[in-house]
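Sanity check. The docking grid for adenosine monophosphate depends on where the pocket ends up, so I'm generating a full predicted complex first rather than guessing from homology. Inputs follow.
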Amino acid sequence: MACDLHVHSTASDGTVRPGRLAREARDVGLEAIALTDHDTTEGLKACAAGCRRHGLKFVPGIEISADPVLSADTAAPGTLHLLGLFVRAGHPRMHSIAERQTAARACRNAAIIERLQQLGVKTTLEQVLALARAEGTAAIGRPHIAAVLTEAGYTRSIQDAFTRYLGRGAAAYIRRDRMPAAEAIEAIHEAGGVALLAHPVQLGFADDAWVDHMVRKLTDLGLDGIETHHSDHTPTQCAAYEALAGRLGLLSSGGSDYHGSRKDVRLGAVRMPMAVLERLEAAARDGAKRGATGD
Ligand code: AMP
Ligand code: ZN
Ligand code: FE
Ligand code: FE
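Predicted complex below; grid placement will be based on this.
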């Protein structure tokens, strides 16, 4: 039996409601899933209830977008996403993260729409918000704008929307105000979770020595582990990240990064042995004990 420790729902940019994920997970033979929506814990309660109904183990999580620039000499050209697993749903630190990230998203979404309109694309913020309302989304982002653009016929697909307008370097790309990694890691720990570097390949380094350097710096900030297995990683990369985790004494994790129909990856496409989940859970418990005794 196995688990998928990186899954999105409609609470962020997935297309499956959090309460429905457990059924899909059971149908593909998973024993446990972690819900890790972008910058929100809104879906955790419904997903936990679904998992209880279907006899699955549930791991409450979050995926926080952080600033890939750690310092002048430690900056990733790509994206830095931090996964928190075993965070307590409804913890005040999770709420404050969500609040801050929602404000940054709102600001960026409005700027993207403005840029699109300058480019002659007549998509409105109201259309994007209407889609988000219909889906029950707490974290509105570029995938929702991509969906509206595609629906209106401006782009052929979500991927096309990213390539032509929304991706880094594209015509309507806008940088978002990003949270310092140290703050994200600290918030995850305070909420009782373990902090993991998501999909290290997306840091965008051409050379593994830079990944090694970045992971060491993140470890100094309290990072607990690496998502060694991910749907964007080749088998060679999975092995390299496992070796890196081993060298630095870090935990490893893995998951599909399922987004429903918004991404071409199936639930359970990446699955980890239950022992991986058990090690992460034990680390979260130990962390909570340390927090409680103050050492
Ligand atoms: P945002 O949170 O608004 O920055 O949007 C980031 C999300 O957009 C990611 O988590 C992916 O799900 C999706 N995404 C990013 N780049 C691409 C791409 N090139 N093609 C399709 N989806 C993408
Ligand atoms: Zn996403
Ligand atoms: Fe991510
Ligand atoms: Fe993700």
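Relevant for the grid: Residues 8, 13, 38, 259 surround zinc ion (ligand 2) (CB under 6 Å).
Also worth noting: The beta strands are 2-7, 30-35, 57-66, 69-71, 74-75, 80-85, 194-197, 225-230, 251-255, 272-273.
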